[in-house]
Amino acid sequence: MPTSHPPQPLFLDDLAAGDVFESEPITLSAGQIVDFARQFDPQPFHLDDEAARGTFFQGLAASGWHTVALTMRLMVQSIPLDCGVIGAGAELAWPKAVRPGDSLRVTSTVLGITPSRSKPDRGIVEVQSVTSNQLGEVVQRLTSKLLVFRRAA
């Protein structure tokens, strides 16, 4: 039986604008939505399907912050940066609600790379990460600046 090898860690010089990283999917249950909401975003449309029916969402919807947390998990799993996925700023949009049973996947594209002038061992990589559901509908768009290090000399 073949074994799976983790991808080689990537450094600043390994990346180029246009590089694309695709995550595996993750499916979200109603229980996970409610559990997250109880801890971090206790609003009726995240806590109870019946109560949520009379709201803007017209049914149980995951917190946007839950979607961000899942996106982060999928980015860490799919972008094998040697130093980890270290954020240095972001812009965020949630064009569609995440619902129980949705299977989310993240596609991350390197938009640009800016080597540091003052710290030659690192740079900033701008990445757009689009989180989509099983129908291909965009549920989150995250443009982030990541701190990425160069390979040690």
Could you describe the 3D structure shown?
By secondary structure, the chain is of the alpha+beta class. It is 22% helix and 32% strand. Strands 1, 2, 3, 4, 5 and 6 form a 6-stranded antiparallel sheet that branches. Strand 4 (103-115) and strand 5 (122-132) form a beta hairpin. The chain is elongated and about 60 Å long. It starts with 19 loop residues before the first strand and ends with a strand. The mean pLDDT is 95.
List the helices and strands and how they pair.
Layout: E1 20-22, E2 26-27, H1 30-40, H2 44-47, H3 49-52, H4 64-78, E3 86-93, E4 103-115, E5 122-132, E6 138-149
Antiparallel strand pairs: 1-4, 2-4, 3-6, 4-5, 5-6
What structural class do the secondary elements suggest? alpha+beta
Strand content: 25-35%
CATH architecture: Roll
Question: What is the total tally of β strands?
Answer: 6
Spatial separation of the terminal alpha carbons:
37 Å
Mean pLDDT: 95
Radius of gyration: 18 Å
Helix content: 10-25%
Largest sheet: 6 strands, antiparallel
Q: What's the level 1 CATH class?
A: Alpha Beta
List the domain count as a whole number.
1
- The number of helices is 4
What is the CATH topology descriptor?
Answer: Thiol Ester Dehydrase, Chain A
Secondary-structure element string = EEHHHHEEEE
Unreliable segments (pLDDT under 50, ≥5 consecutive)? none
CATH H-level superfamily title: Hotdog Thioesterase
Outline type: elongated
Give descriptors for this structure.
153 residues, Thiol Ester Dehydrase, Chain A
